[in-house]
Amino acid sequence: MKKRLMTLSMCLILLMGFIMNSSAMGVTSDRTIEYFDDGSYAVTEIREIDNITTRSSITTKVVAKDYHLYDGDGAVIFTFTVTGTFEVNYGVSTKCTKATPSTKINDSAWRLISQSAWPSGNQAIATATFKRYMLGIPVRTETPTVTLTCDKYGNFT
C-alpha cells in the first residue's frame, strides 16, 4: 500500500512538472532586461499568440513582443507591444504581413504622444514616444523601438 501511494505521488509530481513546463513554453521566451541610471528598467519579452498551418508548407504565426518599463520599485509604468503576423515557409523564407502597435499605461504621470508600426521583410517594427509630466511640464521622454524578427525556421528574436 505504501509503495503504491509513493508511486502514485511520484507520478503526480512528474505530471505537474511537465504540465507547468509545457504551458510556460508557449507563453514567453527571449527575455531581456535593460537597466537605467534612475533605477528604472525595461523588460522585453516575446509571446506566441497563434500558430495556424494554412498550406502544407506555410504556417501563419501571430507573435507579440512586449516592452515593459518598470519604476525603481518594480511597478510597471507602461507596456508597449508590437504584434506581428508572419508567414513562415519552414526552412525557405519568412515574411511579416502585418504589424500592430498597442499600449497600456499604468502610471497617470505618463502619456503616449505617438505610436506606429509596420512590417519590413521578416520583421515587425514599432516605435512610440512616451512622456512623463510633473505639474504639466515634461520631465522624461522614452522612445522605445521594438523589433520582432522571425527567421526561416519560425524562431523569434
Explain this structure to me?
- With 157 residues, the protein is an alpha+beta fold.
- It has a single domain, classed as Immunoglobulin-like (Sandwich), CATH 2.60.40.
- Helix content is 15%, strand content 60%.
- The chain contains 1 helix and 9 strands; from the N terminus they run αβββββββββ.
- The strands form 2 sheets. A 5-stranded antiparallel β-sheet has the order 1-2-3-4-5, with no helix packed on it. Strands 6, 7, 8 and 9 form a 4-stranded antiparallel β-sheet that branches.
- The chain is elongated, with a radius of gyration of 20 Å.
- The N and C termini lie far apart (51 Å).
Q: What name does the CATH topology carry?
A: Immunoglobulin-like
Structural class: alpha+beta
- Which stretches of 5+ consecutive residues score pLDDT under 50? 2-28
Oligomeric grouping of the chains:
single chain
